Amino acid sequence: VGRVDTDERRSAILDLPGTPGGQVCQDVLTVLLCVQHIRLRKNRLVGGHDQTAIIDQMQHVPKDRARITAMQQDEMSPETLIAHLGEEKKPYGAVSPPIVHSSIYKFDSVDEWVDSLALEIDGDHVYTRTGNPTRALAEQKLAALEGMEACRLFSSGMAAISAAFLSCLKSGDHVVAVDMLYGPARKLLNEKLVDYGISVTYVPGEDPADFAKAIQPNTKVVYLESPSSVVFRLQDIEAVSKIAHEAGATVIIDNSYSTPLFQQPGRFGADIVVHSVSKFIAGHSDVVAGAVCTSSERVAAMNVIELDLLGAALSPFSAWLTLRGLRTLPLRVNACADTADIVVAHIKKLGFADKILHVGDDDFGQKELRDKQMKRSAGLFSFLPPGQDEESTRVFIESLELFQLAVSWGGYESLVVVLYAEPMDWPKTLLVRLYCGLESPDDLCADIEQAARKAGWI
């Protein structure tokens, strides 16, 4: 209300009926409220405005807020959805949603307690392993971005992938998977699920007919990653989903490369979309998290089994960091994609790469499919070093000053890894994978050029 002077404090105390002033002085909050009442009663001016009029205007705020929240999700741009969805209520008036660290939640009656045990999906919370307000807000935003009904956040991308597989499979089932999928996901299929009698067949993935040929009577999951790891092959999500559904199989796809902003696999028939949230979505290389986006029915089942019993729930603080990352996701993924296009063009100009594998290239072999199901490529690409020479490739990698040699991608910093890829229809191939972060494109191009000179490539 403004500065409270001595006369007003004295007036506030004396105006309270039947209450000795000395006792009231002990309750500072009561005094301040009384002073506020007196100042409003006197219609004091603050900044030239009648406070009574200000209060009247404030009473209209909930109506405006109701108008905003009445907007349909599909009418909101991703940027607006990220900023506002699920944040209509502001606890304590906090603009940034507070982190709810509590592990347990209180109930006022036995009926509430019983109902919450049965319905802890998107409503009341019982125990943070299966439900937490901070995590629920991030999940709500991610589900809406993907165009799916619901989402669950897990403590890593592999926890999310594992939960997706386990929710669909039992002993004796069969999986058809794209060949060049994320390495640990392949290891899960080859070295763990096989122990439970689950078999897998791999296909290159570029031709939907490959999936149709690989499907068996016991096929329950078709697993996609489009673009695929390292070599960035696309799968026709719509065509493969149709084939899978005709066989009674569930389609799971890893959408970490594109994020929901560049590709929404659910629109093309995918049943479950998984993400390594650690990458673009969280976006600061300080969170390890995963997400499963799918139907409300599937999420409800995962909540009871895969999430509750295996316990790989994301912590409230990591969920809050994920929310922080989401705020700038549209800016970051587009900036990284722009930079990657510039860097690829510069590598082409220098002419040292035997081949560049970049989804955004004008001469990308699957550009029609790319344009059908993707809005654009991301900031990640690979190239084949000259002559497959290991020694000069080592010099190139170790001469880079801005690209850091580290796993993963999706953060603010540019990264490089060198690895051997062995697609089922290729010979073993040496590849350099580059991720373009938020540094200046000109500086990154200069870094690549000086490293290429030291390697003797130019």
Short description:
By secondary structure, this protein is an alpha/beta fold. The chain has 19 helices and 14 strands.
Describe this structure in words.
The chain has 458 residues and is α/β, with parallel strands linked by helices. Strands 3-9-8-7-6-4-5 form a 7-stranded mixed β-sheet, sandwiched between helices. Strands 10-11-14-13-12 form a 5-stranded mixed β-sheet, with helices on one face. It has helices spanning 6-15, 21-24, 28-41, 51-58, 61-69, 78-84, 110-119, 133-146, 157-168, 183-192, 208-214, 237-246, 259-262, 296-310, 316-327, 329-350, 367-373, 390-399, 441-454; strands at 45-46, 49-50, 150-154, 174-178, 199-203, 219-225, 250-254, 272-276, 290-294, 355-357, 380-384, 404-405, 415-421, 429-435. It contains 19 helices and 14 strands. Helix content is 43%, strand content 14%. Strand 6, helix 12 and strand 7 form a beta-alpha-beta unit. The longest helix has 22 residues, at 329-350.
